C-alpha cells in the first residue's frame, strides 16, 4: 500500500543456507520450525537528516504445521509466501510423529523493517542467535526479534539448548519497497562545523547509548502496540532521502502529523530510561524501554510529561507534540530500536 500523506510534509533534521539440525551421537532428536500466521492488516501513510557523525544510534534516531526433519538428513526447506510490506509468512509440511519435538514458533512480520515474537519449545534454552548475533530471551523461551531496512532476505535463527543440542533454521524475509524523498540541497551549517557543537553532540549521543545499555525485564514487548498520537502518518520508516543529488541517511522512524500540545501516549508499557530536554537534533526526547532490548524514542516534543526512571502503562500520557530540535514544523517522530536494529513502527502497529 502506498504511503498516505496528510497536509504539508513536516521534517526534522536528525537521521541461503540449508536448514540444519544436530544431535549428540546415540540420541535421536526431532526438531521443527514453524511460522505462525498472523492476520495483520496495516496502513502506512517528515524527517530530514543530521550529519552521520551527529546521528543518534537508533533515534535522530509475520496456521502452519511444523516443519519436521530427521537428524543428519537433508532438510526440506519450508515454502513461504510473502508479499511486499511484510505480509505474514506461513511454513507448511506434513506432520511427523516424534518422540521429542524441539521447535521455534515465530509470529509477526517477516520482512525487511519487520519484527517477530518467538517461543522456543522442547527443553531449557541456553542461547538464541539471529544471524550470529545474541538475542535476549526469557527463561520460559520467549523472545523478540526485529529486521532492519537493508537486512538480507534470508535470516538464520540458532537455538542452543541447555543440554548442548542445537537447532538452526533459515527462513525468508519478504522484501519491502521503501519510497524516496527528494529535498533541496543543503550544506553543513556553521553550528555543525563548530568544535563546541561536536563536543556537545558527542555528550548527547553518549547519554542516548547509556540509556539503552541495559535492557530491562519488562513485558511491554508482548503487548499490542497502539498509536502514540492521533495524527496521520506523514513520513514512513526507511524512506531514502536525497538532498539535491546526494543520498543521505534513510528515515529512521515514522512521523505523525500533530499540532503543538497534542497528547503523546505510551504505545506499550515500560520504563522511561531517558527524558531529556534540548537535544540538538531530537529536541525534547523520551526513550521508553519495553523490555528484551526493545525501545521507543519520541522526538521533537514540546513538553516532557514523565521523568527518567518512571514506570508507565500503555496509553498513559508521556508528553506532547512539538517542534523542538531540528524540525521545520510540529510533528511526532516515533522510532523503534531493538538490539541495535532500527525497524518500522507501522509494521508493529499492523497487529491492531
UniProtKB/TrEMBL annotation:
Residues 49-96 are annotated as: Disordered. Residues 250-345 form the M23ase beta-sheet core domain. InterPro entries: Cell_wall_metabolism_enzyme (IPR050570), Dup_hybrid_motif (IPR011055), M23ase_b-sheet_dom (IPR016047). Residues 78-87 have a biased composition (Polar residues). This is M23ase beta-sheet core domain-containing protein. It comes from the Bacteria. It holds the Pfam family Peptidase_M23. One of its GO terms (molecular function) is metalloendopeptidase activity. It comes from Pacificimonas flava.
